[in-house]
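[Q] Does anyone have a clean structure-token version of this?
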Amino acid sequence: MDRRIAIAAALALALVSAAACGGSSVTAPTPTITDTITGTVTLNGADVHNFTVVKTGDVTITVTALAPTSTISMGIALGQPSGTQCAVFSSNTVTQGSVLQGSLTAGTYCLGAPVVVQPAEKRSLNAECKVQMS
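[A] Here you go.
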């Protein structure tokens, strides 16, 4: 008999707890989208890649790899495509491990490595950047 009372009490408690929540729901967090961009910047050349931001939010761009020399500096530009060009609105000098952060509205953007900054380097440079959008 005591066991039935304990089960009934537990069931009543569960029903009261569910009713107290008032039918509210939990919103799942928006997943982070990561776009990996790789390319090669040739001597006196440029390399531009487009990416899409699906909703307004925070964006982090991380320079994850530079080769053949990981200590080289290079220019990086962020803009919006305009015909066959990238209309740059922000540029920085970066090295491997550099992190750039900001907010972007939904739309298409371009990320480019327009120039190798370190003058001692007279060869192509391979670069990889990760663009994280949340």
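[Q] Thanks! Anything notable?
[A] The beta strands are 33-41, 47-53, 57-67, 74-82, 85-94, 99-104, 107-113, 125-133.
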